[in-house]
């Protein structure tokens, strides 16, 4: 089970178990009853067709897009030390990724079909989106190697936190705190952050691929250890099938490795068709997603990259909006307040007009171009506060007091805004 060669097997080398290194040969192997203990290993590529961007793709991945935000480094959003000091970026991201917003793909239902037929030994997944559970795969068949949103607990006393309260907090972009008296620690989903250990269930089942008679690896870069070493745990002679955009890891180095490179859902449909399950798979997919069919058909008119780019832009815009409430914001705001003071206060008083003072946001190059579309932290406050956060001009409808210029009145109002922004930080 040591380091596996990355050199592709010579084409002249015959397979040991399969009749050929083809998808049709894999289908025959399953259809003839040779595969009764199938292990699945999946990554973010399994869920990109559902509209969830992966993390590491150079252009469309979350890390590549989070790099332009005001984070110390993109992975900080999943760093336990950073979370302790500033949990808001994670909960802004969680608002977009939380279960219920996305539906399982046809590939998720293929794994469900393997389970229904009694062929699934275990599913190892790196995904935190819970789409495997949503597809109806039994929880005892799933090893969530990097955790998931399925459960949550206090990071201090480790007490479980109620599901309904967690859902409510995430929907409001609020940071939940422990309910136990005297604790008030931060609550975090059972997602494995950088700096945390993997779940015990992963370590207890890590060698299980050695008992498999077929391994199917779907949508993973196999760059994160120890998950990346799972395929090498399969015994020699056991077929390993890779359904992925690219060849990864040591897959393709053994005589019974079959690589199906390209669109993942298309590859899964091709395998299901070769086995003779496609009609059954499509029926299962449609029966479990009746409300999603029209939306799914509409999304098919968009390219895969367009869908991911739209979703990534939405997620990063939300986080960008949240991170604008910083000291940089306050400093830029105070500098901008010097502009009204250059106006003649005597002229403003003689005109006796209503003063409109626009309070600009900090000029952060990475902020959304259309500020009106950008979500803000004002969701849980009153409308007046929300208007101010969305850069709606502040109406000052009182005449200046004796000795007080209109500019001074505007400056005082804007200063109050700075105080309000500071009060809402976590």
Could you explain the architecture of this structure?
36% of the residues lie in helices and 11% in strands. The longest helix has 20 residues. Strand 2, helix 6 and strand 3 form a beta-alpha-beta unit. The protein is globular. Helix 4 packs antiparallel against helix 12.
Task: Write a concise keyword list for the protein shown above.
six-stranded parallel beta sheet; two-stranded antiparallel ribbon; 16 helices; about 10% strand
Strand order of the largest sheet: 3-2-1-6-7-8
What structural class do you assign from the helix and strand content? Answer: alpha/beta
User: H/E order of the elements?
Assistant: HEHHHHEHEEHEHEEEHHHHHHEHEH
Low-confidence stretches at least 5 residues in length (pLDDT < 50)? 296-301, 337-426
Radius of gyration, Cα only, in angstroms?
A: 27 Å
Relative helix content = 25-40%
The profile of the biggest β sheet is: 6 strands, parallel
Strand residue percentage: 5-15%
The mean pLDDT is: 76
């Amino acid at each position: 089970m040591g380091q596996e060669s990355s050199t592709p097997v010579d084409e002249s080398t015959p397979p040991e178990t399969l009749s050929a290194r083809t998808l049709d040969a894999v289908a025959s192997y399953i259809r003839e009853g040779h595969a009764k203990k199938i292990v699945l290993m999946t990554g973010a590529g399994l869920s990109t067709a559902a509209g969830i961007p992966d993390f590491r793709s150079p252009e469309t991945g979350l890390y590549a897009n989070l790099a332009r935000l005001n984070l110390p480094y993109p992975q900080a959003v999943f760093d336990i030390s950073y979370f302790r000091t500033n949990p808001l970026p994670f909960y802004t991201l969680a608002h977009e990724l939380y279960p219920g917003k996305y539906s399982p793909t046809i590939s998720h239902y293929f794994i469900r079909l393997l389970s229904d037929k009694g062929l699934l030994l275990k599913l190892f997944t790196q995904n935190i989106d819970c789409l495997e559970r949503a597809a109806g795969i039994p929880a005892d068949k799933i090893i969530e190697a990097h955790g998931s949103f399925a459960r949550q607990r206090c990071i201090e006393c480790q007490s479980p936190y109620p599901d309904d309260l967690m859902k409510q907090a995430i929907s409001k972009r609020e940071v939940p705190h422990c309910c136990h008296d005297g604790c008030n620690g931060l609550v975090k989903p059972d997602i494995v952050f950088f700096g945390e250990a993997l779940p015990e269930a992963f370590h207890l089942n890590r060698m299980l691929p050695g008992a498999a008679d077929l391994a199917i690896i779907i949508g993973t870069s196999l760059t994160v250890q120890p998950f990346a070493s799972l395929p090498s745990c399969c015994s020699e002679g056991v077929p390993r099938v890779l359904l992925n955009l690219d060849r990864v890891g040591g897959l393709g180095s053994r005589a019974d490795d079959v690589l199906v490179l390209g669109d993942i859902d298309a590859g899964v449909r091709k395998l299901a068709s070769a086995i003779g399950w496609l009609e059954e798979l499509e029926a299962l997919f449609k029966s479990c997603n009746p409300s999603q069919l029209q939306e799914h058909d509409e999304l098919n008119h968009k390219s895969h990259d367009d869908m991911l780019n739209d979703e990534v832009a939405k997620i990063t815009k939300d986080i960008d909006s949240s991170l604008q409430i910083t000291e940089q914001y306050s400093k830029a705001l105070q500098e901008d307040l010097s502009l009204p003071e250059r106006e003649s206060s005597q002229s403003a008083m003689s005109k006796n007009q209503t003063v409109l003072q626009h309070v600009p946001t900090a000029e952060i190059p990475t902020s959304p171009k259309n500020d009106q579309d950008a979500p803000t932290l004002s969701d849980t406050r009153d409308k007046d506060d929300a208007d101010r956060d969305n850069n709606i001009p502040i109406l000052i409808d009182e005449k200046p007091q004796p000795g007080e210029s209109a500019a001074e009145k505007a400056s005082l109002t804007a200063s109050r805004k700075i105080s309000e922004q500071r009060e809402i930080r976590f």
